[in-house]
Amino acid sequence: MKKNAWYLYIPLLASILVLSSFIQHERIKGNGDVKQEDRQAGKFKDIGTSGEFKVYITQGNTHTIKVEAESNLLPYIETKIDGDELEVRVKKGYEIKGTKPINIYVTMQEINELAASGAGGFYSRSKLKTDELELAVSGAADADLDVDAREVKVSVSGAANVKLKGSASEADYAVSGKADIAAFDLQSNDVKVGISGSANASVNAQKKLEIGVSGMGNVKYKGNPSVSQSVSGMGKVSKEG
After folding, report:
1. Which of 14, 41, 94, 221 has the fewest CB atoms within 10 Å around its CB?
2. 65 plus 140 within the same structural domain
3. Could you read off the pLDDT of 21-78 as tens digits, one per residue?
4. What Pfam families would the database entry show (predicted)?
5. DSSP code string of the chain
């Protein structure tokens, strides 16, 4: 009997787990009343988000953070600076559902790394000038950026979409899943692009283009670069214009 006594605790354990799950994920729905709130901002070079946050970036001489969301959701949206990174996230233990977009407006001097997961994204309100920009977008997130950089590194996965314009000496794109990169308007000298799954990329290369495609992905390119390519599966490479 003692061997089987642990079965008696299963209903109790199940109840505890269900209650714990409920407590850890209290859902807050937006009330439709949109407000703006200025947040304390230290110095930061990177931004990381998780959730439905649309981050609008202006490059300037100061550091500012403004959150625009429904008034009852504002207390549950955290903007925390950890080292050089601004972290934007939902307060632990809560799940928020806005009936209006949740917008984060930031001003920053230097821009190095941007990472978004979920259904949010990054949008430039001015040209972003930097030596090296690393952009990682996953899930249903997206990005629309105007860039002036020596090097741009982009990783896109899931169903994410990225649109880029401006200029970069070097560009490196990694695209997977059903993601898409539209970078015809980002003029670059040397470009590397790797595609897997059913992802797509359109790129602009002036001097050198290295392409790797697996699965059903497609790469379109502009310019007259020297091209080296490796294609497996049903993927395609084509020149535009």
Report:
1. 14
2. no
3. 445 579 999 999 999 999 999 999 999 999 999 999 999 999 999 999 999 999 999 9
4. DUF2807
5. --TTGGGGGHHHHHHHHHHHHHHHTEEEE--S-EEEEEE-----SEEEEEESEEEEEEE-SS-EEEEEEETTTGGGEEEEEETTEEEEEEPTTEEEE-SS-EEEEEEES---EEEEEES-EEEESS-EEEEEEEEEE-TT-EEEEEEEEEEEEEEE-TT-EEEEEEEEEEEEEEE-TT-EEEEEEEEEEEEEEEE-TT-EEEEEEEEEEEEEE-TT-EEEEES--EEEEEE-TT-EEEE--
